[in-house]
Amino acid sequence: MKELLxxxxxxxxxxxxxxxxxxxxxxxxxxxxxxxxxxxxFHTTREIVYEFASLGLVKVYEVGRVKxxxxxxxxxxxxxxxxxxxxx
Length: 88
Description:
The chain is 61% helix and 16% strand. The protein has helices at residues 2-7, 10-21, 31-38, 42-54, 73-87; strands spanning 29-30, 58-63, 66-71.
């Protein structure tokens, strides 16, 4: 799985690793907050988040004008596999 992660473009890899690191946080993650933390433009982050949403890795909820990104169980499984691969 680690090899597949290496094949991802840098922007997607950075975002995936960020989501994995913060998957257990109780703090709500907005697309704006994620883009600032990962140091990507808002538009790039939004595009990748919606791509991940179409893959079932995250769910995006609209609360007013803010979009909240919530990791799914599928993302948590992917993160666990990645962590196991790094431990070996």
